[in-house]
Write a structure and sequence with these properties.
The structure is a homodimer of 152-residue chains. The first copy, chain A, has 152 residues and is of the alpha+beta class. The first copy, chain A, is built from three helices and six strands, in the order βββαββααβ. Chain A folds into two domains: 1-42, N-terminal domain of TfIIb (Single Sheet); 43-134, K homology (KH) domain (GMP Synthetase, Chain A, domain 3), CATH 3.30.300.
Chain lengths: 152, 152
């Protein structure tokens, strides 16, 4: 199939807050005050867990339909642990991001445990966000000096 | 340092739409109509790029301050390509997620090109979201049958 290109624009509003434009949708990303932020939105690592949950909904329903069972809804608890030391520049011993992500899906479904386990396997294989987190994804960042960026 | 635990709750509203609760913040994630969705929010892979941009703002300003140059603002263009075939269950040839992510930062900064390149290196090393995307992160998903999940 032809590759899909996904494109967003983003702009800092202050040292911790970002306004994102994705098509006609806006996201406000910030840090809580105890992390030095202005707390106007969820923080970047909360957005990562949110993105993953959104992907699980889409792929979960798609796969349930293919497998032939009724899925009335999904409730998800998402958890991740990270050591802020590297991010804060205090130590390089641990990685910067989540050490791992734990997801518990409560599925309101007409399916037994064995079926749900097969369902999860398929989801893990086919969910784009889960793939990008669990496997290496090249991220290339280039910085250009600009006087056009909005000043704060 | 002590690990930080990050926790969110999410619930499907229909086969493509998810409502996320992250502390006191809500996110609505959906798919556009051409991907079978109800288009009430940005989609999961757009949220991934958003999360990354939010992280770059925070770490970018932190590192600029440490390096001793003035950063008045950042404008970011974020792009990713993915082949939807695996997600749709049509082929397993390509990975499900982004093949790569390209970020262009327009930095309104009192810094020369060499300084900005060093700045980007530091950001790549210390941004939690960039780390989770560019390196493997264990994602563990468990499904439980529940009649308590909200039905649609």
């Amino acid at each position: 199939m032809k590759d899909m290109n996904v494109n967003i624009q983003a702009e800092s509003r202050n040292a911790t807050q970002t306004e994102v434009q994705a098509r006609n949708f806006k996201m406000i990303i910030d840090e809580p005050q105890n992390l030095g932020g202005t707390d106007e939105g969820a923080n970047p690592v909360e957005y990562v867990l949110g993105a993953l949950s959104g992907c699980l909904t889409v792929v979960g329903h798609l796969v349930a339909k293919e497998m032939g069972f009724t899925l009335r809804g999904m409730r998800m608890e998402m958890n991740g642990n990270l050591d802020p030391a590297r991010f804060m520049g205090k130590s390089q011993e641990e990685r910067a991001g989540y050490k791992g992500i734990e997801v518990k899906i409560h599925a309101d479904a007409d399916a037994d445990e064995e079926t749900l386990n097969k369902w999860v396997e398929q989801i893990e294989d086919r969910c784009p966000v889960s793939d990008n987190l669990s496997h290496e994804t090249p991220v290339h960042i280039a910085a250009l000096k600009s006087v056009n960026a909005m000043s704060n």
